[in-house]
Design goal:
The chain is an alpha+beta fold. 33% of the residues lie in helices and 38% in strands. The strands form two sheets. It has a three-stranded antiparallel beta sheet with strand order 1-2-3, with no helix packed on it. Helix 1 packs across helix 2. This is Putative redox protein.
């Protein structure tokens, strides 16, 4: 896996993934940016949410659950002093579907956290306290 980061100006950078997709990263005006993109640490948090969500959807589909939508809402706390690393991250899944089995939703969240989501596991091994929970919404 590769990535290429190019400085544009101020606090703005373009990140290009090995698959050819680009993301704009920028800082706030007080840091020399123009607030025209996500912050690098936000990108990391979004990546963790995407990784975990992918796992949960995949596991629920394999379990033949009738899912309509899965959302992950993440909240992170960062250290007060430099380096301002994440110290805690909470991932709340909202799983919508028809006649979902709670045991399978719970298991999908656990498998993502403990076995499959490399972003979550990597950050957890690095000392970040990561917690997960979920809610199930039955749709007609």
């Amino acid at each position: 896996m590769k990535a290429h980061i190019k400085w544009v100006d101020g606090a703005m950078f373009l990140g290009e993934s090995g698959s050819g997709h680009t993301v704009v990263m920028d800082g706030p005006e007080e840091a020399g940016g123009r607030n025209m993109g996500v912050r690098p640490m936000e990108t990391l948090l979004i990546g963790l949410g995407g990784c975990a969500s992918y796992d949960v959807v995949s596991i629920l589909r394999k379990g033949r659950q009738n899912i309509h939508n899965v959302e992950a809402k993440l909240e992170a706390v960062r250290a007060d002093s430099e380096p301002k690393v994440f110290t805690r991250i909470h991932v709340h899944f909202v799983v919508k579907g028809r006649q979902l089995k709670e045991t399978q939703v719970k298991r999908a969240v656990e498998l993502s956290a403990e076995k499959y989501c490399s972003a979550s596991i990597m950050l957890g091994r690095g000392g970040v306290e990561i917690t997960h929970d979920y809610e199930i919404i039955d749709v007609d």
